[in-house]
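Why does residue order matter? Because the sequence determines the fold. Keep that principle in mind as you read this record.
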Amino acid sequence: MAVGVSGLTLCGDAPSILAQATTTRVFTPSIILGPFYPQIKSAEQDADLTVLAGRQKRAEGNVVHLTGRVTNMKGEPVRGAKVSVWQANTHGRYRHQSDANPAPLDPNFQGFGTQTTDAEGRYRFKTIKPGAYPAPVVGMRAPHVHFEVEAKYDRLITQMFFPGEALNEQDHFLQFVKGPYREAVIARPAQPTGRIEADALSFVWDIVLLSG
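Structure:
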């Protein structure tokens, strides 16, 4: 008897179990870059988007603790991958000159951050739950976070959505993602580890690259 990945106990039929796990794994699909990729990235690009150096106040809105792993289709961790995120603030506004949304900007929100995955492929961000917003042509966008993952062989541009959002059923870009690939771009609620802010939310979102 042996213990395998995720604590599964593998016995005589271990090859069939592993084969099934491989066939059910799906890669994270690409979703459009969008028009609001940061034009000018601030000098502060760390993994905590809720505070800026020299500011006493944190960003407005519900704090989100977002964790996950980057793996390949074999389930192997992708170490050393650069993970970048950018998003609207709690009011649904990007810090971008082309964003015509009249919602207010938040001077305390970083809006963009980067991380490098560790030896187990893990990343972690602290951010704000983004607001929904009206987009030209396609209508209301559900709350989402943009991701870019740059690894040794693969580069992925996609978007992560939040579970239970009513606008998920109307979001133009999410509607193009079907079946298990749709599930692959929606984060899962998570139990917080350690002490977090009273209004904070915790989510897990794992990213699967083709090769890594």
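The chain has one domain: 27-209.
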